[in-house]
Design goal:
Strand order of the largest sheet: 6-7-1-4-5-8
Order of helices and strands: EEEEEEEE
Number of helices: 0
Radius of gyration: 16 Å
Low-confidence stretches: none
Length: about 110
């Protein structure tokens, strides 16, 4: 049987996110390199939305979202790691289209 490619479609209120590569090693304001493995307080991460389910209302594909990566499910697709979460687990979105933002920009 030939390899059949199957498209992934997210269901219900699920969101598939690719973690941003810059969320690894960080630099302090003084220039000190902080490795990704350093123990810190719980840290939220930014990621790019790659897919959304049919019941997702506030997040769109292409948005950047803020979430807790430690509480999500991880899946690997074609060698790339993604996280799957419920829309309610997203803390914030960064998008060009805005109705009521914080006034802060990435």
């Amino acid at each position: 049987m030939a390899d059949v490619k199957l498209e992934i479609q997210m269901l219900h209120d699920r969101v598939m996110v690719r973690i941003s590569p810059e969320d690894g090693e960080r630099r302090s304001s003084g220039g000190i390199v902080i490795p990704a493995t350093a123990q810190m307080a719980k840290r939220l991460a930014w990621g790019d939305v790659m897919g959304v389910g049919t019941n997702v209302r506030h997040v769109k594909v292409g948005d950047r979202v803020l979430f807790n990566p430690e509480e999500q499910f991880e899946v690997e697709v074609q060698g790339q790691t993604y996280l799957v979460m419920r829309e309610r687990d997203v803390h914030a979105t960064a998008t060009e289209r805005t109705d009521q933002g914080t006034g802060l920009y990435l």
